[in-house]
Amino acid sequence: MKIKFNPMAAAALTGALALTVAGCSSDGTDEEATTGTSTEPTTEATAEATDDAMESEGLPEELILGLVPSDEVDQLVTDGDTLAALLSEELGVEVTTFIPDSYAAVVVALQTDQADIGFLGPIAMVQAVDEAGAVPVLQSVRYGSSSYVTQWMTNDPDTFCLDEVTTEADDEGVNYSYCNGATGYEGPAGEDALALLDPGADIAFVDESSASGYYYPATQLQNILGIDPLTDLSASFFAGGHPQAVQSVYDGDALVGTSFNDARSELAEEFPDVGEKVVVFAYSSNIPNDGVVLSSDLSEDAQTQITDALMALAETEEGLAALDAVYNIEGLEPADVDALDEARQVAANFGES
Q1: 232: three-class secondary structure by DSSP
Q2: Is the Cβ–Cβ distance between 89 and 68 less than 8 Å?
Q3: What is d(CA 303, CA 298) in angstroms, rounded to the nearest whole number?
Q4: How far is 171 from 177, CA to CA, in rounded Å?
Q5: Tally of CA atoms within 13 A in the half-sphere of 303 that contains its CB
Q6: What is the pLDDT of residues 293-329, one digit of tens each?
Q7: 7: which DSSP letter?
Q8: How far apart are CA 280 and CA 149, in angstroms?
Q9: Average of pLDDT values for 26-42?
Q10: Average pLDDT of the segment spanning 106-132
Q11: CA nearest 285: which of 332, 345, 351?
């Protein structure tokens, strides 16, 4: 299936501000005195308006947390609800989750007041900023770093491993195989092997808005093979999520696939041999981690409260466990705006800027 990038339709939202004007007569006589209207109701109305304005600067009664589909949906619903409950307890308002079937849908939700908080990959964060006016506030930390890489995976190491396959066991005793120096968390690596990839091969990308699952690896192929990733990757397809891309390679539905490193662990419990059957043979350059954006319709005070609450959750055992369950997040730090600008440049190759 040919990959086609589908630009999202922008939604423009407008609001009207009603102004109440108190008039005076031309001779300076108070018009209210002329009509016999008391000034007391006006004073009460002004006080009520002031109270309403003060309340609008705080949190709304309900917040909607948008989560991208980066895991098995049923499990993500469960884990997302746990995170929402903890955030609700921290903020003192109701928090509900919104989990669509694509990254782009979360951006659209931020555009159309269907989401207040978005957990997004870096490209989708850029799209949310540029198309929905969202505010980037936090970025995820994993393995002590706020950046990561695309891992290229294959079920055909004889073709794509130019050196010996190395197998290492994790703390749970699960084996994971690598070659071409694609181990650790620094890229690029294995680009000589990527030069062997036929653009017409079955390639399992993740999602059309995924940084590690599509934008960065497709740009990498563009630079190495001299192709147009929008037209020349004729048999490629979007698996729908990182674990799904891994499973596409595991099941033999794709010759190679892309995901964040190391998404194979997401399937290790169900398929204990996934780390050996699916071999990582190349890395992209480093990519800023996913992060959190907030709707610009929220007041600055509300944005600060939500940001502080998420940071506070990341400092607790229960909160960190919830963040880890949702997206393997090991910590949070302020958003790296410069790194997001680099992601914006990558996105520009696909008609996004």
Answers
A1: coil
A2: no
A3: 6
A4: 15
A5: 16
A6: 999 999 999 999 999 999 999 999 999 999 999 999 9
A7: P
A8: 12
A9: 34
A10: 94
A11: 345
